[in-house]
Structures are given as structure tokens and as C-alpha cells.
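<purpose> Linking amino acid order to shape
<body> The protein record starts here
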Amino acid sequence: MPAGLHERGGPITVVRMADRIRFVLNDQPVEIDGLSPMTTLLDWLREHRGLKGTKEGCAEGDCGACTVVLERPDGKHEAMNSCIALLGQIDGLVVRTVEGLQAAGGEPHPVQAAMADADATQCGFCTPGFVMTAYAFASGGESADPDTIHDALAGNLCRCTGYRPIVAAMTQVAGLPIEPPAIAAARTAAASFDDRFHAPRSLTELLALRAAHPDALLLAGATDLGLLASRSRKPPSAVIHLAYVPELTAVDETSKDVTIGAAVSYARATPPLAASFPALRPYLSRLGSRQIRTMGTLGGNIGTASPIGDMPPVLIALGARLKLVSPRGARELALESFFLDYRKTALAPDEVIENITVPKLEADEMFFCDKLSKRRDQDISTVAAGYRLAVEHGRVRRARLAFGGMAATPRRAEAVEAALVNDGFAAAARALAATFTPIDDWRGTAAYRLQAAQNLLRRLELRMASPAYALEVEAL
């Protein structure tokens, strides 16, 4: 048995050492020493491991050519972009690449066979990414309906052939039994891999590191920060990785609230959020591809403080609250008060976001949300909006409205709320013009954004008037 491995009544367990990155790759334990944890997983696979099946297409998590699969201990398989994943993030995980699909005798995996049978490849550059997406999809026991397959494939692009044969292959492998990983990776307490990449395993460690390294960037999913290492080739000088802190990865639900840890992925956050707020399910399906939702987090989306981030407007409308923690203690802050100016927040240098709590709807309330973007899939919003409404006899009696892309920060629209409650939707649309000064960029002019937001209020009025229309809109 290789050094560092031992049996514990079942699968082989990898035991971490404090100064090394350890994970499982294609059923084999891997130990990395002497290489920067800021190296992308894609670069390591190709340049240090010689696994050339995983490709670099866009280097920013859009095209899916770099897709690999994380195999969770519970048997769940999740596709992810290796081009923006840093090696330090992979510590303690189980990863599979396209080379790891073939059986010992060299026989193709059923997913690979299905792609070949359907003639679902042409030049072949994007094919490994599609194969790995199909592998993750097959293991999920999902139905082969067109909408589900579209969602699974949204993060993979093919530039030289049609998608029909790829969809046919996905249909063939839907629900294919996939064995859980034979080797499980385990973590022990370790705070750092080197003086640049810190990976605390407890909230106490995290806060101590935050106080000691106030200039280090907080790393959650790396869907934003990973671009510094992949596309820009200028990784940050120091990061504190949040994914292993229990308080930041917890999900809790009561009769009144849903609380999501700041480092919980969208893939994990979607089921509890969508159960309480059904309008969020189609909205979150457009936030990014499955590869991005495997990595991205609510806390990261909030912490970057982008005026066009997808989640802040809908969470502000829902009345979300943040729990901020530091060595000085904890405090609670309404999300709408967190954003101070363009890319500036109320987060103190020694603070981190621990979780986000969202109050559930009251019996008389309804919630809707909208996202306008240049592309349906894989695009940041031009305008995003959330609306939490209390309705009585067809009239809005209470409202919380928030918009993104309409100012330097995501913002609640109190004046628009008052106009809606007092004078109706036409007055609310007029109040938008007096409330917001939209940003003006290549995604949309200020004039377009203002008109689009006013039209979204008219759409909201139609939603309330016609349940059938509401269902049609949510399907868009």
C-alpha cells in the first residue's frame, strides 16, 4: 500500500499533511508539494500530469472545454470548470477527468460510447468537456426531458457541429448507474499550504487569519477571483479559502427563515431557496452553468459588490440579513445596508460574512424576480429585479422592490414601493426615473436600462393579474 494510506474498514482514506495538497484523481491518491496552490487545476492537469484531454478554450469558465467532475462522498457528481479552479481549492476532494472514465481494459465508458453512437462529435476539441458533463448528468438520476438536458448542457459550447446528436447522447445515458468513488479524500486540521494560500478549518482559525492578513482576498468559489490566475495569469498575492469552515458551509431552515452559509455553493443553496421561493428556481438556472453553480457561492456574489450581480437585488427584495463576524464579535446587517458605493461595502477589514438569512413569505405575500441579459445562459445581468409583495383583494398593500444594474450598487427602491402601494403600477414606473440613475456600459445604455426596468414593472402587473401569464414568464 502506498505511503500515507491506510484502511479504515472500507475505502482507502487519504490523510492530509499540513504543507501538501492531497486529493484523489481518477481513483488514485495524489500529493502535491512544492507547487503554488494558486496554480489552476487545468494547468496542473495538462502541464504537470500530462492529462491533455481536458482543454482550455476560454480560460474564464464559459465554454466548458475544461470540464471535470467532482465526485462527492454521497455519490453526487458535479461538473465544474477546471480553468478557474485553484489547486488549493481541490484539497480533500475527489476529481475525475475524461481519462479516468475508461475501464482497466481500455473499453470506453458508456457515456463515451453514447457520444460515438450518436455521431455527437466533429473536430473533437470540445468533446471531452461534453463527455464529462454527460457523465455528471447521468449519475444524477435526472429525467431526459429537453429542459433538463438544456440546463445540463448550458455550460458547454460546440463551435463546429449541431447540438442535436449531443442531446441524443444525453438522452441515452440519462439515469445511468454510476458507482460512488472507490477512494474517499479526507481532511484534517490545517491552516495553510504556503504563505499565500490559507485554508482554515474552523471559524476561529478563519478570524485569526483574517486579522493577521487583512489584505488577503477571501476566496469562496473562485468564479471571479479564479480569472486572475486563469485569464490574467496574475493570481492574487494572498487568499483565505472559506470552503472548509463549518459555519460558512451550513444550511439551516426554520418555519420562518432559510439561512445559507456564505461559502455554500449555488448547487447546494438552490433546493432550500427554491422550495420557499419557487420563482428562484428558473432564476438561479440562468445565474450560470452547472459548472459555475458547483463552484459559485451566495457570499461570493454579495462580497464582490458588483452593481450587476444576480443575487443581491432579489435577496434585498426578500429582506435578507447578513451575519458578519470578526474577533470582536458578531453583528447583523440588512443586505441593503451592506453596499455603500461602487465595489465598496460595510465589511470591516477584520470581518467576514458568515451567512445570509432570508425570511420566508407570509401567507398574503408573493415573490417574483427578473433578469435581463444579452444572452439567456452564461451571462451577467443587464438589469435584475426582485419584488416581494403583500396583496389584498388584488391590490398591493406592502412591497419590497430592489434592482441591479440601475445604480453604482444594488439598491432597494423605497420611493417606487411607496408609489406602487399608494398609486399603482403606472406611478411606480414613473417613480423609477426619479429614483435611479442607471449605469451606462456595453451591456446596456442608461436609457435602455430605465425603460427595461419600467417595462418589468408592467410585466409584474400582468403577472399578478394572470396566474397563467406568471407561469409563462417564469418559463422564459
The longest helix spans residues 446-465. The chain has four domains: 5-184, 190-241, 246-359, 365-474. Residues 411 and 423 are 21 Å apart (CA to CA).
